[in-house]
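Handout, section 4.2: multi-component inputs.
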Amino acid sequence: MALGVSKKEKIDDLADTAGVSLAASAWKRLRRSPVFLIGATIIGIFIMVSLLSPWLAPHDPSDKMLIEQVVKARNEIPPAQPGHPLGGDLQGRDFFSRLLVGSQQTLIVGVGATLIGLTGGLILGTLAGAIGGWVDSVVMRLVDVMLSLPSLLLAFSIAAMFARPSQFTVILAVAIVQIPVFARLLRGSMLAQRHSDHVLAATALGVKKGAIVFRHMLPNSLSPVIVQSTLVLATAIIEAAALSFLGLGNPDDRIPEWGQMLGDVQNVFDTHPHLAAWPAVCIIIVALGFTLMGETLREALDPKNRR
Amino acid sequence: MLRYTIRRLIQLVGVVLVLSLLLFAWMRLLPGGPVSALLGERATPESREALTKQLGLDQPIIVQYFKFLGRAASGDFGVSTGVQPGDSALDIFVQRFPATIELSFFAIVIAILVGVPLGYLAAKRRGGLFDNLSVVGSLIGVAVPVFFLAYVLKDAASAALGLPSFGRQGDINATRVTGFFTLDGIITGEFDATLDALKHLILPAIALATIPFAVIFRITRAAVLDVLDEDFVRTAESKGLTASVIRRRHVLRNSMLPVVTTIGLQTGALLSGAVLTEKVFVIPGVGQALAIGFERRDYPVLLLLIIMATIVYVVVNLLVDLSYALIDPRIRTR
Amino acid sequence: MALLEVRDLTVVFQRRGEEPFRAVDGVSFDVEPGQTVGLVGESGCGKSVTSLAIMGLLPKRGATVTGTVTYDGTDLLKLSDKQMRDKRGSELGMVFQDPLSSLNPVIPIGLQVTEVLERHRGLARKEAMIEAKNLLDKVGIPDPNRRLKEYPHQLSGGMRQRALIAIALACRPKLLIADEPTTALDVTIQAQILAVMKELVQDLGTALVMITHDLGVVAGLCDEVNVLYGGKVVEKADRHPLFAEPRHPYTHGLLASIPRLDAAPGEKLTPIRGSVADNIPWAQGCAFAPRCPNALDVCVQVTPAEEDQLGRLLRCHNPVVPGTPAAEEVPV
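Output:
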C-alpha cells in the first residue's frame, strides 16, 4: 500500500516540476514580482559588500587595536568612538570592520556548502537516476538512512566527528546533510523524464546514453535544483551559526564569520547584547533574502501557477 | 495496514543498524578517540596502550561493533565520558528523556494552535494585508537562528513578562511520578507545581516552536488555498451551509493531509532545535546532553542519543503515515 | 409574474493588472414555475457564470455583478450573505458538472445529503438519515442504506451524479439550476440521468434552468431556449421553432455541426469556423461576425440590438432565411 507522503516523497514531489521551457515565462513573472526583487536586491548588496569588504573595512579585523581599553576597563568592551562606529569586540578589535569582513566568510560558507552538497547530490542522483538497477537501490538506501536523521542533528553529528574543527569542517558538515536532498531531487526528476517523449525520441534516434543524460535529462532537472540551492544558501548560513554556538565551529576567529561571531559571544548575551544582535540581524536579513528569492523562484517555476 | 506497519518497522531496524555501524566505525577511526578523551592528549604511550587493550579497541572494528551490539542488547551502551562522566549512557537518556518530550510537546502544540488558524485565515484573505504580513512574518521566522531567538526571549521577554529565564529549575520539592513536571503536579494534586512547571516551559517552548510554526503556517495556507478552489466547496456553498460547517467539515478536513505530514516532519526540527534551546535555557534534557556531548566529544552518549532521536523521528513519521487512513477514506478503503 | 426574472445581468471580472472582462453582458430571461429553460452555448459563452451569479456563488472579490435577479419577488443580488445562505439549498438547488470533484471526498455520502436537511429542514440526524435514504431511492440509487455509509470514490460516476441530484432536490427547491449535469458521464448514463431529472422536476413542479452545450439535451428537455454567445443572448425561442428554423447564424451553425441520422449519404458536416478567440468586442459590432458566414459590413460597425423579429428575440443584422443550407461547406 502506498501510504501518504514522507520527507522523501516531499522531495520527490518537488522534483516533479521541471522543464527549461518554463524558464522564459518564469523569468517574465519574476521580473515583475516585488518580493523577488527585494530578495535579489538584498543578495546583490550582500555579494557586493563581501567582495569589496577588504577595501571597505576601515581597520584590520584581526588587529586588537583597542585592547588597552578592554584591559583598562576590566573586560568592559570599548564603546563606539571616532573611527570605530560600533566600538570594539571582546578582544578590542574594530567591530564594524569585523562585521564587514565577516560577510565574506559567510558568503564562502553558504556558497561552499551549497556547491559541495549540490555536487555530491548531482553525482549520486545522476548515478541513481540514469543507471537505475542495483546502483539506484544502493544509492537510495544510503540516502534514506541519511534522511531518517533530523537534518540539523546530522550536521551537528558530522561536525562533532572532526577532531579539529575549522571553517572547512563547518562547510562540510552543513554540505553533507544536503547531499541526500539533492540526490533524491535529481533522481526523482530524472526518473520522471526517463519515460518522457523527448528522451524516448533521443533514444530512438540512437543518441548515446551519456549524451542523453547530460544534454537532455540533466538540463531539464535543473529548475527544482536551482530552487533548492537558493534555499540551502539560507539554511547553510543559519546552521553554521548553530555549529559555532555548540562549539563545533571554526575556533580560529582572526578572520571573522557572522555565525561564528554570533555563536562565540553566547556568554555575554545579557551584558553586551549588541555584540550578538549585529551579526544576528545580518544573518537574518541575508537568509531572508535567499529565502525570498527561493520561494518566489519556486512559485514561478511551478507549472501549476503558469497561466 | 498491519503488513505496511511491520514492513516500515523492519526498515527502521535496518536503518538503526546501518546508522549505528557508521557512527561506531567513524568514532573508532578518529584520531584520539575515546582513549584521548579519557586520558587527555598528554598521556604516556604505555598508559594509552593499556587502556586501548582494556577497552578492546585493538580488535577489528567489526568485532568491536558486534561486541557493542551484544552489550547494547542488555542495555549497556557504555559509560559517559563527558556529559555526566561515569554514568551509564542509558541512564542519562532515561533521566533526561521526559524533559525533552515535555518541551517538544508544548512547542508543537503552540506551533499547531497558532499556525493552523493563521494559515487558514491567510488563505481566506489571500492577497490581503493580513495574508502578506503573515507570509513575510513566517519567512522571517525561518531566517532567525533558533538559539539567538532563545536568548532574546530569555533575556528580554522573561524580564518583561516576569517569567523565569531558566527551564525546569523551579520547584525541586515537588513529588515526582512520571518525570513529566506538568503531569506530575496534576497527578499528585500539586497544582502549584504544574503551574510553576508551565511558567518555566513557556519561553523555551515558544523559542522551539518558531520554525515548526512558520512551516505549519505556510503548508496550511497552501493546502487551504488548494481546497478553496475545489468544486466540492462550491457544492457546499450551493447547499447554503453555514460558514462554520463549511470551514470545519469541508475545507479544513480536506486540508489536513499535508498539514499532518508536515507536523510529523517537524519532529526533526524539534529534536535538533531542542539541542539549542535546552542549552540556552539550561534545561536538563536530551538536547542539553547532546549539546554537551558534542562539545566534549562524549561518544557513547552521542551514539545512543542520536540513535534514539532517529528512532523517535522515524516512529513519529510512521504514526503520521498511519493517521492518514483516519483522515482520508480513499486510503482506508483501498 | 415569473418565478425567476433575470434582467440585464452583467458580470465583469477584474484582475489586477488586466483589462476587465465582461463574462456576462446584459442577459435577461424568465423562468415560470414548472418550466424548463435552456442556456446553450460553447464553453466561455458565459452560461456557467450566469448560473453562479444567480446562486450568489461568484467570488466576492474580482467579480462585479449588476442587473437584477428577481426570485419570487425579491432581488437576490440585494440579499445579504446570510439571507442568501438561507435560500441556497432550500429554495434554490444546483447540480454541477463533474460529480466526482463536486462531492467531498473525505465524508460519507450520507452526511453530504443529511447536512442540507439538517440545515434547512431542521431535521435531527436520525430523521435526516431516513429521509436521505428515501431521496437516494427516488433518484434510483440501488441499496441506498449501504451507499449512505460509502464515500464518493466508492460510487460509479452515474451514482455520484444521482447523489448530487438528491442533494440538490433534498429540500424540494422551487428552482433548480443544472450546470452541464451530464457532460462528465457516459452516453448511456446521460440518458438515465436526464430521465431522472425530468421525472423529479415534473413531480415536484420545480422550475429548471438547464445549462448545456449539448443540443441533444436541449431537444429532450427544454421548453424555451436561450442561445448565448460572447456573454449575450443572441437568440431566444421555444424549442420547436428553434430546432426547426434556427434564425441566428450561430444557432444555425451549432445545429449544422451535429451529425444527423436522417442526413443523406455523403452529406458533409459543417462546423463553425474559427473559435471564440476570434471574437470582436460587442461594442464594435457583433462578436460573432468574424466567424459568421452571413456577416455584412454593418456587422462589424454596429452592435446588433435584441429585437423581436420573425416571432422570436434575435440579436442579428442578417438572420438566416429558412430553407437555406449553411453558406459554406467545410470538409471535415
